[in-house]
Amino acid sequence: MSASASGASPALPVHVGIIMDGNGRWARARGKNRLAGHKQGAEVARNVVRWAKEFGIKQISLYAFSTENWERPKLEVRGLMNLLAILLPKTLPEMMQNEVRFRILGDLSPLPGSARKAVELACSNTANNTGIDLILCLNYGGQQEIIAAVKQTLQWVQTQSDPQQALTALNPEQFRNLMWRHNIAPLDLLIRTGGEMRISNFHLWDAAYAELYFSSVLWPDFSRKDLQVALDEYASRERRYGLTSEQLET
Ligand code: FPP
Known about the structure:
Layout: E1 15-19, H1 23-28, H2 34-55, E2 59-66, H3 74-97, E3 100-105, H4 113-126, E4 132-140, H5 142-158, H6 163-169, H7 172-177, E5 189-192, E6 211-214, H8 224-236, H9 245-249
Parallel strand pairs: 1-2, 1-5, 2-4, 3-4, 5-6
Helix pairs in contact: 2-3, 3-4, 5-6
C-alpha cells in the first residue's frame, strides 16, 4: 500500500528517526558556508514534521546535534546553537497549529542558556499537543544513552529486595524502561540522507530491529516525495524480529 494513500495502515511506522545529513555539501555546491546549509536544513526539518503528520506518523525524531558535533568548528557549533535559539520560538505558532508536541532526547545541560531556554519553552508550550511528537535529538549519543541506562540500572537494582537476582534476571524490556527513551515508541524506520551508510551513534538501542533506509538526497533537498518513497519502501519490508516468514504467517 502506498504511503500516499490516506488512512491508517499497519505498514506505517509509528516512529521514524532521521539522520539529516548533507547540509555542508549542499552549501558547498552553492558556494555558501556550512551554516547556510544548516539553515536550509532547518526549513526542511520544519516541513518534514508536517509531511510526516499528513502521512499519519505519530513520532518523528530528528538528529539535530550529536554528542560528537561539539568538536566541529566553533563557528559552526555557535551557529547551530543560535539557529536553535532563534528558530524555535519563531516556529512555535506553527507547532501549535499542527498540534506538534516538541520533545527532546539528549542531555541539554551543556547547551548555551539561550538555546536551552528556547527548547524548554517549546517543550512546555506544546506538552498537551497530540498530533505528532517531534523528538529533537540534541547533544544526543546512543552510546551515552546506554551508559546512562547502565548507571540507572545499578541504582535500580539496589532498590530491589534481591539486587543480585534482579540483575541476573534483567531483560531488554526492563533495561529500555531505564533509558532516556523509556516513553518514546521503539524506532521503526531509520532514514539517513546524504548518501552515507552509517548509524553514527543514533538510536543505537532501537536500531537493533529498526528498518534502515539510506537516501543519496542531501538533506536540504529532501522532499515530501522522498519521504513517501522511504515509507513505501518500509511498507514493503517484512519485519521478522529473528523469526521466519512462515512463523509470521501463522
Ligand atoms: C549533518 O550534515 C547535519 C548536522 C550535523 C546538523 C543538522 C541540523 C539541522 C538540519 C538544522 C536544524 C538543527 C538545529 C540544531 C537548529 P553535515 O553538516 O554533516 O553535512 P555534510 O556531510 O554534507 O558536511
